[in-house]
Write a structure and sequence with these properties.
Organism: Pricia mediterranea
Radius of gyration: 36 Å
Number of helices: 4
Strand content: 5-15%
Structural class: alpha+beta
Enzyme class: hydrolase
Cofactor: Zn(2+)
CATH topology of the domain at 63-227: Muramoyl-pentapeptide Carboxypeptidase, domain 2
Shape: globular
Helix content: 10-25%
Bound molecules: zinc ion
Distance between the termini: 111 Å
Keywords: Cell wall biogenesis/degradation, Dipeptidase, Hydrolase, Metal-binding, Metalloprotease, Protease, Zinc
CATH class of the domain at 63-227: Alpha Beta
Largest sheet: 5 strands, mixed
Strand order of the largest sheet: 2-4-5-7-6
Function: Catalyzes hydrolysis of the D-alanyl-D-alanine dipeptide.
Length: about 240
């Protein structure tokens, strides 16, 4: 009997020592989700939303800074640098101001240009009459600088000197640089490569559709028709 009991107990012991099937069964294959990579997307802080001023309540003749109303323009304000035909900097800082009516027409024209993949780039905008005197002192020749006593439409806030560049910032070929005084800059100079004629045509036709007129000898200069009768001004903008 004792032996039997012993044998039974031994059996019980052996069976209880058997490995229990593991509850944490390892899968044959381990699928790991590939890590998402963002090689081509650098982490950038979101740009703060730009807010622009509106023309509401402003008189048509008020002087405004174009960049306060739109960020769709490009600027290369040459008279705030020495890179101009005077070889002198005549503005304390580079700002583009015009009267409200000119600004409105420019924004409307620029919207049309954007639809065609280009935008206006400014060389000069409103020019205070005192700066006209400064320019006259450097070059006293009415062929190149308007007589400050009479003033120019730039002094009235109704003229701009512009070209076009692509939305990626590449300037369109207009055949000459800004302030090139010679026949090649004339609108009636047609002995030019077709792409230059096309670029000038795009600039001129679009500006004319928005109330601007051009002068024969400078492809870059545009006057707002409604700005010719405004007074010559000497409003000066602030520089930081
Ligand atoms: Zn001009």
């Amino acid at each position: 009997m004792t032996n039997r009991i012993c044998f039974f107990l031994l059996l019980v012991l052996i069976s209880s020592c058997k490995d229990k099937p593991s509850e944490e069964k390892k899968p044959d294959q381990v699928f790991e989700e590939p890590m998402e990579t963002f090689d081509s997307v650098p982490l950038e802080k979101p740009e703060p939303q730009k807010t622009f001023l509106t023309f509401e309540g402003l008189a048509d003749t008020t002087f405004v800074r174009l960049a306060d109303f739109s960020d769709g323009f490009a600027y290369d304000l040459r008279y705030a640098t020495e890179n101009n035909f005077l070889k002198e900097k005549v503005y304390d800082c580079a700002e583009c101001y015009t009267r409200v009516k000119t600004a409105k027409a420019l924004i409307a024209a620029n919207s049309d240009f954007h639809d065609q993949g280009v935008r206006i780039k400014f060389f000069d905008c409103y020019r205070p009459n005192s700066v006209q005197y400064k320019m006259w002192e450097i070059v006293s020749n009415p062929q190149y600088v308007a007589n400050p006593d009479k003033g120019s439409i730039h002094n009235k806030g109704g003229a701009v000197d512009i070209t076009l560049e692509t939305l990626e910032g590449e300037e369109l070929d207009m055949g000459t640089d800004f302030d090139f005084f010679g026949k090649r800059a004339y609108h009636d100079m047609t002995d030019l490569p077709q792409n230059i004629l096309d670029n000038r045509k795009l600039l001129k036709e679009t500006m004319e559709q928005h109330g601007f007129w051009s002068i024969r000898t400078e492809w870059w200069h545009y006057n707002l028709s409604a700005g010719s009768n405004d007074k010559v001004a000497d409003f000066k903008w602030e520089c930081d």
